[in-house]
């Protein structure tokens, strides 16, 4: 159904494995709330892929690319959101009342898992570069004999599976690293670093053309 399936597969695989915003978010959330937190964040990120695939299929991304004002507006909102997440991550490490026990209790109530999903989902759909990438990549593999919409969703599903496995693996590695280095000081340093990375990524998105 998809033209040059293996070329598409390799392109998506390389894209997924390239360190960037998604990796930073998963590491940050795993450090904050554990493996489930990181995987839930990854799930939110991957669900956002279907939004971009749909936009690409129906041509909404064309408007995003053709309108400099709209592109700038979406980019600015996304950048500010990333900077906000980074600052919140750094600030949380200075909270004297934060502890692993508190995090575990809240996790059982499900509140941070929903928060992690929202953070992952919003960071993805508010990233215009992902929309532009999908607009540029997906049409290269569309078979004109079949539905473009169905093929776009199929490619997003493949990307979803690859990304969930990759980012889930990262979350597991970070969780194991936390167990080996079960120090609150180390955990806070990791969260500060990933928070700083999010701020830098947001700032880079804000100033990029």
UniProtKB/TrEMBL annotation:
Which keywords does UniProt give here? Cell membrane, Membrane, Transmembrane, Transmembrane helix
Its subcellular locations are:
Cell membrane
Q: Name one GO molecular function term.
A: amino acid transmembrane transporter activity
What does UniProt give as GO cellular component? plasma membrane
Q: Does the keyword Manganese apply?
A: no
Give TM regions: 6-27, 39-64, 70-87, 121-142, 148-174
**Membrane topology recorded in Swiss-Prot or TrEMBL:** Multi-pass membrane protein
The domain of life for this entry's organism is Bacteria
UniProt KW Membrane keyword: yes
Name listed for the protein in its UniProt record = LysE family translocator
Species name = Aliivibrio finisterrensis
């Amino acid at each position: 159904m998809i033209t040059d399936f293996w070329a598409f597969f390799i392109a998506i695989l390389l894209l997924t494995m390239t360190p960037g915003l998604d990796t930073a978010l998963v590491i940050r959330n795993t450090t904050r709330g554990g493996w489930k937190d990181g995987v839930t964040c990854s799930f939110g990120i991957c669900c956002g892929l279907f939004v971009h695939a749909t936009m690409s299929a129906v041509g909404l991304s064309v408007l995003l690319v053709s309108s400099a004002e709209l592109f700038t507006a979406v980019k600015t909102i996304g950048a500010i959101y990333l900077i906000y997440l980074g600052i919140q991550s750094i600030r949380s490490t200075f909270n004297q009342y934060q502890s692993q026990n508190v995090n575990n209790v809240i996790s059982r109530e499900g509140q941070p898992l929903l928060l992690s999903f929202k953070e992952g989902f919003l960071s993805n759909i508010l990233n215009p570069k992902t929309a532009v990438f999908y607009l540029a990549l997906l049409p290269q593999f569309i078979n004109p004999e079949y539905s473009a919409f169905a093929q776009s969703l199929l490619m997003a599903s493949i990307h979803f599976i690859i990304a969930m496995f990759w980012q889930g693996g990262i979350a597991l590695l970070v969780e194991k690293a936390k167990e080996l280095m079960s120090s609150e000081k180390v955990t806070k340093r990791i969260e500060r670093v990933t928070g700083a990375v999010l701020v830098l990524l947001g700032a880079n998105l804000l100033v990029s053309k």
